[in-house]
Amino acid sequence: MPPRRPAPPTSPSSQPARGTFRKRYDDLETRRAELVARVRALGEAGQQHPGYKRALKLLNDTFRKSKLAQRLAVLEAAAWLIDVLERLTTTL
C-alpha cells in the first residue's frame, strides 16, 4: 500500500467565514419572512395573478423541503418572481 500524503495545512484565514449553521438558518428565515411580507403587500391585483400562488409555494413548500444549501437559490427565485409581480401590478 502506498504511503499516505499528509493533508495540507489549512489556516483559518484561507477559508471563507460561513458562520454557524444556526446563523445561516436564521438569516435565511429572516430573508424568507421579508419576501413573504412583500408578497402579501401586493394586494388584490397581485393575488389574481397566477404567479402569486407560485411565489407562495416557493416561499413555503419548496423552501421547507429544500436542504439548507439550496434554500438560498429558492429565495432568489422567489425574489425574482416577486419583482416581476410588483412590476406587473404597478403598471396595471
SSE blueprint:
Elements: H1 21-40, H2 43-47, H3 50-65, H4 68-91
Helix pairs in contact: 1-3, 1-4, 3-4
Keyphrases for this structure?
mainly alpha; 0% strand; 4 helices; 92 residues
What is the number of independent domains? Answer: 1
**Helix share bin:** over 70%
Strand content range: under 5%
The counted number of beta strands is 0
| Oligomer designation | single chain
Mean pLDDT: 88
Structural class determined from secondary elements:
mainly alpha
Work out the radius of gyration.
20 Å
Distance between the termini: 72 Å
Tally of separate helices: 4
Unreliable spans are none
Mass-distribution shape: elongated
| Strand/helix succession | HHHH
Largest sheet, described in full? Answer: none
Can you put this structure into words, describing what you see?
This protein has one domain (21-91). The radius of gyration is 20 Å and the shape is elongated. It starts with 20 loop residues before the first helix and ends with a helix. The longest helix is centred in the last third of the chain and has 24 residues, at 68-91. It is 71% helix and 0% strand. The protein has helices at residues 21-40, 43-47, 50-65, 68-91. It is built from 4 helices and no strands. Helix 3 (50-65) packs antiparallel against helix 4.
